[in-house]
Amino acid sequence: MDSSEIAEDFRDALEDLKSNSKAEIDNLTVIAKENTAHAQALCKVLEQHIKTTRPEWKLPALLVLDSLVRHIGPPYSTYLGQNLFQTFMNAYTQVTNATRRDMEAVFRTWKQPRTGSRDTSPVLAHEITFRIENALDKIGALNQQPRTATPPMPLPLPLPPQNSVSAAYLLKELQSHTPQTFTPPPPRIFTPPPLPQIFTPPPQPAPTIPTFPSQPMAAPIVPPSALLAALRQAGLSSLPVSAVPATPAPPALAPALLPTGPSGISLTNESIRVRRPHLIAQLYQHNPNQCKQCGRRFPSTTAGSDAKLKHLDWHFSVKTRISDNTTVNHRSAYLDEIEWTQLRESSDDAERPLNTAEETQKEDVWVPMPSNSALHNVPCSICMEKFVTVWHATAQQPVWMDAVLVGGKYYHASCYEEVHGGSGSGGRGLPVRNGGRSGEPAFKKRKF
Amino acid sequence: MSIPGLSGGPPGLSEFDPGQGEDASPVELSVRTHSSGPETEYRFEASFTSPVSIKLLSGSAELFGTELAPQVAYTFAGTKAAIFTWDGAALEVTGSPQSAHGTGDTSMNQAANIHFALEDLRVAAEQRHGQGPRVMVVGPENSGKTSLVKILAGYSLKMGRQPVVVNLDPSQGLLSMPGALTATTMATVVDMEEGWGSSPISGPSAVPVKMPLVFHYGCQKAGGSLGLYEQLTRRLGWAVGTRLDEDRDAGSSGCLIDTPGSLAGDHALIKRVASVFSVDIVLAIGPEALYNDIKAQFPDNVPEEKPVHVLQLDKSSGCVDRTDAYMKQFRQNQIRQYFFGHPGMSLSPFTQFVGFNEITIFRINEDQQPSTTDLISDDSEDDDEDDYEPAPVSTAKLERITPSLMLQNIVLAVTHANPTDNTDNILASSVLWYIYVAEVDESKSRLKIISPISGRLPMKALVFGGWPEGVPDLAA
Question: The CID domain covers which part of the protein (chain A) (predicted)?
Fold first, then answer.
């Protein structure tokens, strides 16, 4: 049997892999192990599969990769290591955050020695892992960056390069490494690991089998034994049936897209054509308490009345602001990708000003950007640096973050605090808008 | 249908049958009362120049899923719309619609059923802290895709949801310019009079503003510059996926994707776009053949695949063909509104002069249509049953251009990318804001531009895609 046939079968098997089924992954590992002569072709198929499969199926495929490099090692680790940065990071950018955590967990184990092996060298060589580690670090740095002084959604001002790690960065990074040639590694002696090891689950921080909240899917219907049987038929595997672990219970059934719900509508062409007048009340009569200004409805409960009161307050405050607004308005800038993904909408009956502990901390101190455009470039009167303008989602206007207005002059809150408020631990002297922050070191803004 | 001031001809293309409704023929500028029975709708067309004002006197009524407040006069210009009532309503119509009639022949039951089916999925998603339904609407031009998306969005807002609305149709903008592909999380009521509403402005707004994520595609047709459309779609899909994943409210609400009519003819592209957004449900509006073709892309006899439900919806009899002239006026209106606002929310952009040497303008070259063989990946062993073959790599090219008279009256996208970035980054960069080139002064080597933001133009890459077409009298 030549490489292309085996590779073809391997790809078919990969395409059937739609969950983190250990049995299926182990089967694929066994197949790969028995066909080390065709390792190069199989690796290419696996890489291609990880690259092109749907995001929700990337993790199972990566677990196959993990299994090959962990349980078989060379030559698979050599072949797969060559393009691992692209393979891993490409997938990483496309999957959900939960999956990213899982991928990170898997990645961490690659830097450690094989479990149950006397060899202390890591699963994958440092030269292979460090680039991924670097890239993940940079993203991690972005995620964990204390955002106390930075606004929740900074206007897309040019960020210093170390901050601008983003999808764009990753993309660039990927693009700069894309053209890869598949050079065969120097021949190595293949020492098969003891067979039982293949079937012991890695006791290391095993990749938690994630449930895919975003991607409900049905349990795999094809039992792994059937898959193996098919492969055996194809002459691919000489594994005795008994070695195949008993078909595991299918992974907990993720709640699939239910065909019918409380409404009694199923997603069929017939069902959506049935007239259901009784449902319409949910849009109208269930919420009889209507805002006379915009038509929005609220339930006739105490909570509904409260929400309506807040909503009316919002109408009032907007009207007041519109009539008080003597200056002209203009369109604001759009956000960039990262800022937009971090944006959270607030409904117009939301609490205003923000008063939850978490948000007060995040929101910090701000003043509305002066509407007089002559003042737009006014710097802090203490450090003479300009203010950071951001769109404030709750206030619905552009604001200067970390700023205070005292006696007609604008200051950085931290500068003002430092000069007038003593040590900065209490921030007593700080006239703040939204409760301000306390205990925040006041030195970050000053540059001497 | 005719646009006053452009042709003056009879409303030949209008699908409205004047004999059908109570308010049969177009009326003179006047105040009339129209009473609609339960589950009927009042269809009207208001021209750009002669607005129509409609007030709900009694009962309840909604415009594309957004309920009218009682006794509030809403003014419509350049609008073709229908006011539907579930329980019956009396409307007061002021002004002279180009055409208007009432009818009970609507497809609202289908829309409502879809909504409640989606709502079931959202409730389930909420309970398991999972993701709500991701819905894509596909259909030919003028089949009511945007209206359906609006109805579904409006209903879900009524139920307290925050769906992400994605517009993949470059021929009309959503909270932005024509030529843009956007995603917006809707958390507040959709503007009755102005399409969806307004993107953020520097001051207060009576209808809450909505923040879109904007990519500038700069071509009219979805396939115009082949790879670029998919490249931007993937970027948008990444951002939407991340947002849905991290934003609990939006995540359980899911997303609603509007698509261009041309997509209905490219089934493989439908499948790829659906995969980018992890779509659960495809709503195919219109002919059964289209439904069958799309259905074939998502076979449901693959048990272990995430099911993609394909549903066929009837095209509403209220759909009217929008002529090129109307669409052009619609776009120019959209561009004007970006800079100058709309009635009730006027904006003043800033006029400034910039030297040719202060800016870097790139032109997207869509002429270089790649041959089909370039598009197919070199993995020739990929046979047709490989559904997830890599999407074609963008072959769009960026060319740095010196300002010339060609730019006059054109809208340029100020991207987030730096002029020194590589061209792929610039092409795939989201938009900061748009500027309008009011004048190109070649002798003084400077441009007169209109910008919504004051101050110096940031050192960002400006992108010009050749679409939308120029608006000659914007500054006038």
Answer: 2-140
Any domain includes B4 = no
Answer whether A288 touches B (CB < 8 Å).
Answer: no
State how far residue A438 is from chain B, nearest Cα, in angstroms: 28
Mean pLDDT calculated for residue range A338-349: 82
Q: Is B280 on the interface with A (CB under 8 A)?
A: yes
B144 carries a ligand binding annotation: yes
- CA-based nearest residue in chain B for residue A311: B188
Q: Tens digit of pLDDT for each residue in B194-209? A: 889 999 998 888 888 9
Whether the complex's predicted ipTM is more than 0.90 is answered with no
Question: pLDDT category, B387, cuts 50, 70, 90?
Answer: very low
Helix (H, G, I), strand (E, B) or coil at B31: strand
Beta strands of B356-415 (E only): which ranges? 360-365, 397-401, 411-415
| Closest residue in chain B to residue A282, using alpha carbons only | B159
Reported as a single tens digit per residue, the pLDDT across A195-238 is 433 333 444 444 444 444 443 344 344 444 444 444 444 444 34
- Inform me whether the C-beta atom of residue A94 falls under 8 Å from chain B C-beta atoms: yes
The number of beta carbons lying within 10 Å of the beta carbon of residue B11 is 15
CB atoms within 10 A of CB B358: 13
Mean pLDDT of B131-140: 96
A247 touches B at CB < 8 Å: no
Closest partner residue to B70 (CB to CB) among A157, A292, A321 is A292
Neighbours of A296 (CB within 10 A): 24
CA distance B185 to B132: 14
Tell me the mean pLDDT in the region B273-288: 94
- Record: contact A175-B133, CB cut-off 8 A: no
Verify that B154 and B299 share a domain, yes or no: yes
Residue B23 domain flag = no
What are the structural domains, with CATH classification, of chain A? Answer: 3-142 (1.25.40.90), 366-420 (no CATH)
Distance from the Cα of B369 to chain A's closest Cα (Å) equals 22
| Chain B residue with minimum CA distance to A340 | B213
Same domain? For B370 and B228 the reply is no
